Amino acid sequence: MEIRFFDGTDNLSDALWVRDEVFTKEQGFTIPDEDEFDAVSRHMVVYREGRPAATGRVYCDADGETFHIGRIAVCKAFRGEQLGRLLMERLEAVAREGGAKKIVVGAQLYAIPFYEKCGYRPTGERFFEEFCEHETLVKEFS
Prior knowledge:
Elements: E1 2-7, H1 13-26, E2 42-48, E3 51-60, E4 66-74, H2 83-97, E5 102-108, H3 112-117, E6 121-129, E7 132-140
Parallel strand pairs: 4-5
Antiparallel strand pairs: 1-2, 2-3, 3-4, 5-7, 6-7
């Protein structure tokens, strides 16, 4: 296994490939899965067997204390290897090193239990991204 970090100005093709495999091809979201937050995010890609297997990103709000982790995606062939947990732990570490007091995630409803196991608390705030309902979860640090 290899882990690489990328800035938003780097070549994000491996991260975008994983997101396309999971969000577009598997889950049916619209192409492309790129947005304005990619350019200001720190991206993480996990490689297994020499190919991209999982990705996620983290970025900071203007307040300098609230960070967002998102676009967590693990290719189907590599699920069950705890790569989602690894992504969360490493991206949280990046946020904490950056001064995070709070981390926010927007989770698809089926994924809420995963984020709760990672220490996130559901807020009850629900929203839609395309056709899919999500909920905002938070993790706060003292």
